[in-house]
Design a protein that fits this description.
Alkaline Phosphatase, subunit A, 2 domains, 14 strands, about 35% helix, about 20% strand, globular
């Protein structure tokens, strides 16, 4: 039986007043997801741990069957590997955001989601040319506000984050419940990391000075657009994880993080290109990206007979932006254009879940459990719809994400 494993990134939520005290899953019209819920078995689970508000990196690692405590080595290397970096023996990789800052207060961690592809690439080009560090480095813009910074040399990963939204706990990056909006100094978390922290702080200082005066930001300011005038590094790592390889799996993924993880676990990565961002209309771009991702996912159903891992990224964004109606709309689009196609397939095992909650009210990840659906045409329980509240009444007893894949291969 072929397995199709679907993650709706950050789609899980809490009841919201804009949706008449319903979650986006409860408010959305999802006849196809509800069909699979009614004919399958459901439950709730914590992707990483009961009191952890995880990032996607550690959550996806767990959901693919790898204990993060054993295998996870930091987000930075996964992002860098997925972005095409050839990581040698000695390196340090960090995930970054272009952000907007006034004095030391962060106004927007994502530049209002209005940074175009060309603007981001041009800013990155200036940084690589003009920033001078006591080591070789490369900064790369990946997609939207996101980027990767790689230092080459013998560096410690035991440093704190500059980005205040996430706290470093061991190798994990964990969303902070009470977010600070002041840029953080990178601090060494042991005596060996002092030099590394100093270099990261110097990168942030020099790049900020360049970005403040860059013609692109002057143009954005004149247009009343948020300036991309600081870079926020986080989640440092200095080695790639060594995963036991999966057999007979393919993945439809578009973001560097998910590309990195799925390549490292041995999946056949069916990459697709997100559309270039050409205007400041963030949600126009997001819906184009969602259509592209759905198109690639439907194509993959016929392109390969391998088990499929499909990760829809777009559903996470409205949670961070506090827009429950947009999340509801995206869920409905995926149900109509993708899950409807799965109803025509025979002899499949369908798994549907989320990597974490991103409640619109919080505008951040939370530690709440996520809904889980497993359909195989044989086992079913009394649940009739797919939502957080409905799945709580289901028969599945899976407690942690790392246990989900047991018995599927």
């Amino acid at each position: 039986m072929r397995t199709i494993f679907v993650i709706l990134d950050g789609a899980a939520d809490l009841p919201n007043k804009e949706l008449k005290n319903k979650t986006p899953f409860e408010a959305a019209k999802t006849p196809n997801l509800d069909y699979f819920a009614k004919e399958g078995a459901c439950g709730l689970m914590y992707t990483v741990g009961k009191d952890i508000a995880p990032e996607s990196d550690v959550a996806v690692t767990a959901l693919l069957g790898y204990d993060p405590e054993k295998y996870f080595t930091g987000r930075g290397p996964l992002e860098a590997y997925g972005a095409g970096f050839k990581l040698k023996r000695k390196f340090l990789a960090l995930r970054t955001n272009f952000a907007t800052i006034e004095n030391n207060s962060i106004v927007d961690r994502r530049v209002g989601r209005s940074l175009t592809t060309k603007e981001a690439k041009d800013l990155a080009r200036t940084i690589n040319k003009e920033v001078k560090l006591p080591c070789k480095f490369k900064f790369k813009s990946t997609t939207e506000h996101r980027g990767v910074l790689v230092l080459y040399g013998d560096f410690s990963a035991n440093i704190s984050n500059v980005d205040p939204a996430y706290e470093k706990k061991g190798t994990f990056g964990v969303a902070k419940a009470n977010k600070e909006f002041t840029i953080q100094e990178c601090k060494p978390l042991d005596n060996k990391a002092k030099k590394t922290a100093e270099i990261i702080n110097e990168f942030v200082r020099q790049s900020r000075a360049l970005l403040e005066l860059h013609p692109i930001n002057k143009q954005r300011k004149n247009k009343n657009l948020a300036m991309a005038n600081v870079i926020l590094p986080r989640d440092a790592g200095n080695k790639l994880p060594s995963f036991p390889k999966k057999k007979n799996w393919a993945a439809v993924v578009g973001m560097p993080l998910e590309i990195g993880i799925t390549k490292l676990v041995g999946m056949d990565v069916l990459k697709f290109r997100y559309p270039r961002i050409t205007s400041s209309d963030a949600y126009k771009h997001l819906y184009k990206s969602l259509d592209k991702e759905i198109e690639a996912s439907v194509k993959a159903l016929n392109k390969t007979d391998k088990n499929l891992y499909i990760h829809f990224k777009e559903t996470d964004i409205p949670g961070h932006d506090g827009l429950p109606k947009e999340k509801k709309k995206m869920i409905e689009i995926i149900d109509k254009k993708f899950f409807s196609k799965l109803r025509k397939l025979e002899h499949i095992k369908l798994i549907v879940t989320c990597d974490h909650n991103t409640p619109c009210e919080l505008k951040a990840h939370s530690a709440d459990p996520v809904p889980l659906l497993v359909y195989d045409g044989i086992h079913k329980d009394e649940v009739e719809t797919f939502s957080e509240k409905a799945c709580k009444k289901g028969s599945l007893k899976i407690q942690l994400g790392k246990d989900l894949m047991l018995g599927l291969e």
